[in-house]
Amino acid sequence: MPYRRQRSLALRCSSSALYNNLAVLCPPRGAAAAFGAVHGSSLSLLPGEGPARQLQARGGGSALSTPLLTQAAWCELPSRVLLVLTSQRGVQVRLGGPGGPWGALGAHSVFARGIAAAGGRFICVGTSFGAVLVFDIPPKGTNVTLSEVLEQHRDPITDIAAEQGQAPDGAGDLVTADDCGTLCLWSSGEEFTLLGKIPGSGCTCSSVALWNGIVAAGYGNGQIRLWEAGSGRIRAQLSAHARWIYALDLAPLTGKLLSGAEDSFVHVWKLSRDPDTDDIEVQHCHAECVTDTQVCGARFCDPAGDTFAVTGYDLSEILCYGPA
Amino acid sequence: MSARTLPLLFLNLGGEMLYILDQRLRAQSIPGEKARKVMNDIISTMFNRKFMEELFKPQDLYSKKALNQASMDKLYDLMTMAFKYQVLLCPRPRDILLVTFNHLDAIKDFISNSPGILNQVDETFRRLIETYNPLSDGEFQLIRQTLLIFFQDMHIRVSIFLKDKVQNSNGRFVLPTSGPVPWGTEVPGLIRIFNHKGVEVKRAEFTTAGNYVTPQREGSFELYGDRVLKLGTNMYSVTRPVETHMSGSSKDLASQAKENIAPNPLAKEELNFLARLLGGLDIQKPAGGESGFRLNLFTTDEEEEHAAQTRPEELSYKVINIEATQEPARRAELSRILGELDVAEPRPGSAEKGEDLLALMDGL
């Protein structure tokens, strides 16, 4: 199904060149989506309703040195939706609605990067020394606790993703990725369990997604690899982009995969399984060139993947695409 | 973000500064002996051993700001837009090192008959290789991302880029979707499917608008060698003069600057040191003597004054005190060394040289 550009939303500031630098909050049917993209030490925010805003990173040092943000994401838990920011000093979570209180979490790493909700009540955040911090989020209130630190990666964490579909038995529901391409598969719960580790080849895995037991991983050499979460075996390798991949996203209802890279291209793929052989099938659906823009953020805006949004380095816009 | 950004920023911007200076020297037919002396002096000071030792220690970039003047702004525009282009376009993050090597190779060619100065540069070269060659691709990407934050929202139009059609009239750089892919990357278009045992069972192809080819070979990361990559080599020549166009009217720029609620916390600190190298400017003048030389990238003083008045305050490049966040002591040490270098600058005969260079830059 082809897509075309439908509209462009103006941001207060341009987007920085950071992995997965676009947060999208898809509301229930009918309401407008909210968008966020990091600009240096602030977040350019487009709430679903109301004017564009700029959220400053919280200090954690002298006024002279506001920390640079590394990522922003909305974490959707059954009980609440939290806006989480990672920076070169740690993690910040907005615990209320707009204008609500902010909490600063575990800030001893050089920088934090990689954000995902998991297991219904946890938020996982990666750090530059390879540890993944697991925070237990109460259904309401501000009593957030550090429930666990996962120490399996030896390189800086790049991205974390939770299962978006149905995890097959023993496949795990969380994947973490690092600077040298190593992937770890976990099952979330009171205690997180490591189920498998896919060693990296040295090439950075900058973005990762997990759907029905398939790990989709985007790399610095422009490749997308699909891994069987249960066995850790490779199932597909796509020579997808000419340069470093910055963003992947998965549409849970259809298995559509979105990829964006420094080569200024955005691709839409469709993943499926052959019911007879259980082999994974990949179909290339759409290629979009965002002229003279190194894409740094790309996300679907609905669960079926009929619409998606893109931003790029130095671009003060979010470009929205929909059915042609 | 990466604490290993400062040496690359300094060496590449310094390299761009020397390209511009060299072009002015040749364009104005400055006698060979004098020109060589100027280049040697500046390179020797830039590559001072103690300064380099401090520069290579890991540190964050922050700066304090003070006012500077229009010609310096213009020089900074050229240097920073050139390096922004190189950082943005370099095929892999690691290739920032090849860009730096291209600058250092050219700097070595600028040195005439001075094995001592050549040694200074080679020492920095070896330090660079030792420090950066072992870094992972991920670390290089972090360095690149830190540099891109530094250069974010700068869209100054540079005539040489506009003529070469590598920059658009809105100040954004053109990103090619053809030519060689980066070393280690496959040309896009192939999908390979593996069965549950990991054996390849199927291949499929897809087409995109890109028109890429496989790269010939990788550039050399050694002290001597073919860098293959052309980014970071000298783009100026006598017939390709140094000039910038300001993008839009100054009013637009002012409103643009105000739009940025958060000022870029990474600042242009070591540019101040480069500025001091180019002469007195508005930094302290030694008592009773001429202050080195004054750089003017405009045709007349009136033009320079006009540019200074029309350029919005917020967009003016600022001068620096080093503000590394983690270790104030080290920051002080770097400042002290910079101070010493500055004091050492006025030399016998500097008055005469100063006048020469003033005339030289006025010729633009």
From TrEMBL, chain A:
Cross-referenced SMART domains, in alphabetical order? WD40 (SM00320)
Q: Which UniProt keywords apply?
A: Repeat, WD repeat
- Which parts of the chain span the membrane according to its record? none
The yes or no answer to whether the keyword Nucleotidyltransferase is present is: no
UniProt xrefs under InterPro entries: WD40/YVTN_repeat-like_dom_sf, WD40_repeat_dom_sf, WD40_rpt, WDR54_beta_prop
Q: Which Pfam families match?
A: WDR54 (PF21031)
User: Manganese as a keyword?
Assistant: no
Cite the WD repeat-containing protein 54 beta-propeller domain residue spans from the record: 3-319
Source taxon at top rank? Eukaryota
Q: Which PANTHER family match?
A: F-BOX AND WD REPEAT DOMAIN CONTAINING 7 (PTHR19848:SF8), WD40 REPEAT PROTEIN (PTHR19848)
Name of this protein: WD repeat-containing protein 54 beta-propeller domain-containing protein
Organism encoding this protein: Geospiza parvula
Q: What is the organism lineage in this UniProt record?
A: Eukaryota, Metazoa, Chordata, Craniata, Vertebrata
Automatic annotation (TrEMBL), chain B:
Where does it sit, as one GO cellular component term? plasma membrane
From which organism does this entry originate? Answer: Geospiza parvula
According to UniProt, the name of this protein is Uncharacterized protein
